Amino acid sequence: MQEKKFSYRRLMFTTFVISGCSMVYELLISSVSSYLLGDSILQFSITIGLYMCAMGLGSYLSKFIKVQLFDWFIFVEIGVGILGGTSSILLFLANVYLESYSLVMYSEIILIGVLVGLEIPLLTRIIEENAGNLRITLSSIFSFDYIGGLAGSIAFPLLLLPQLGYFSTAFLVGAMNLGISLFILYSYRQYIGRTALWKVMIYISGAGMILGMLFSENLASGIEQGLYRDKVIYSEQTPYQKLVLTKHKDDVRLYINGNIQFSSMDEYRYHEVLVHVPMSAAKKREKVLILGGGDGLAVREVLKYKEVQQIDLVDLDAGVTELCRNHKDIKKLNEGSLDRAKLKIYNEDAYEFLENNAGKALYDVILVDMPDPNSETVNKLYTDLFYRLCSRNLSDEGVMAVQSTSPYYAGDAFWCIHETVKQEMPFVYPYHVQVPSFGDWGFQLASKTEIQIENLTLQQEGKFLTQDNLQGIFLFGEDERSKKELEVNSLSSPKLLQYYLEAEKNWE
Predict the structure, then answer these.
(1) Where does the PABS domain start and stop, copy by copy (predicted)?
(2) What is the CATH number of domain 8-227?
(3) Domain extents for the chain?
(4) Running DSSP on this structure, what letter comes out for residue 383?
(5) What angle do CA 237, 386, 346 make, to 5 degrees?
(6) What is the CATH code of the structural domain delimited by 264-507?
(7) Residue 8 phi/psi, 5° resolution?
(8) Could you say which of 39, 145, 312, 369 is catalytic?
(9) Annotated catalytic, 312?
(10) Is 241 annotated as a binding-site member?
(11) Number of C-alpha atoms within 13 angstroms, CB side, residue 58?
């Protein structure tokens, strides 16, 4: 009887899938670490570098595997599936309960990387030993490897993370690795020795991954609660960021990627100062542009001016505006401002909005209410080019206010924003306010014509801001002023991000 010819086509499919899985693990660990620790550039750089090094080590170690290549390959896939599938939950648990998060992260990267590094050498040798023709083997296997990596890198940000979140994504991709090991087991069982052992391990591990996916929301809720002081009442992973809402008695707090955006107990201090200072300094208040501010709290304050005819709100994440439009606690806080007739919401990038709108319609007041510049993505919205675009969209007598982080906790960052705005606006006046949930918080008031700050009359008083304390917010203590010369923040030289991350480290 003639022996059946070895078919390697199924191994090409295997290469495609495991390469995509490998890429997802790399992105997943980087993203989780960025979410938990901040400084995404550092987290992605460390993960990619260490992962590649570990893969190199795995490739080197493959030379010591001389027999039972199929068995070793199944072992590797089971190991990758278990380690990768549980990677997210282990990282979150380490952050909540252990002091040595970095040790857990590095261990995961190295172990998964070493096993992934074994995969392609083992597959190459399996095909070469059974089918021959090294030239075709190498070209085919690396082609499917690279294409699979592309598929994984696209699927992670566009499909997996937005739809499934960190935990379900890890469990699903871990299950895919286990599925591949089962696929190989049944496709090439005549070449495999320990089929019974591998079946038991695959089925048990696979059941764990499936249960993990089914109960991922419960797991996420339980573990995520440990990250926040108050009870988590809402959690959502949007295509752009993680939204978490907490509540304790009457205190409702919104967090984006782990960073507090507001507390209902004192947000009025922040928003009164952000809105009423520039609105009082402006000669006209008919057209107002709000960049960021998807919570609707700045809109609430702007609506107190009867002369306002049009408010354009630009917030990239529709998840934020929908949450704050519909959630009863936030809707009560913003007084339903996101449903008002004067307001038009644009869920698009603020930078692109300003570029497209330049020269079409000028605004009397622009309020820049962006998150802190703690990533390269947000840093773009604090650059000289961004403020140049703001200036082009501002009328000659218009006024702009910019959220500028804390002059006390992040002094260099605050004054860097001040210097950057000064590059594009002739007159810039720094001011600040104490917000208990944030601390000392700062802003920049900017205009094309000079503002007589000492003669400024408040057009709308609030719970905190009154005419009596208006002048005080423009005064700074000596310890809130930068003692060194700071560089302007630009796209090509993101100095602000450096200043901000240095401040974060100083206050850890």
Answers:
(1) 212-448
(2) 1.20.1250
(3) 8-227, 231-260, 264-507
(4) S
(5) 45
(6) 3.40.50.150
(7) -105, 0
(8) 369
(9) no
(10) yes
(11) 24
* 276 labelled ligand-binding: no
List, for residues 418-471, the tens digit of each pLDDT value. 999 999 999 999 999 999 998 999 999 999 999 999 999 999 999 999 999 999
Average pLDDT, the chain: 92
Q: What is the DSSP letter of 6?
A: P
Q: Return the pLDDT at 2.
A: 43
Nearest of 432, 412, 430 to residue 484 by alpha carbon:
412
Q: Which residue in the block uniquely carries the two structure tokens 């390269």?
A: 376
**Rounded to the nearest 5 degrees, what angle is found at the Cα of 274, between the Cα atoms of 269 and 275?**
105
The predicted pLDDT at position 34 comes to 87
Q: Is the pLDDT of residue 493 over 60?
A: yes
Q: Please report where in the chains the tokens 């993680």 appear, as a residue.
A: 242
Secondary-structure breakdown of the chain: helix, strand, coil percentages, each rounded to the nearest 5:
60, 15, 25
Residue 139: per-residue pLDDT = 83
194 pLDDT higher than 50: yes
pLDDT band at 360 (very low <50, low <70, confident <90, very high): confident
Q: Which amino acid is at 488?
A: V
315 is in an annotated binding site: yes
In degrees to the nearest 10, what's the CA dihedral of 405, 411, 413, 416?
120
Residue 175 is labelled as binding a ligand = no
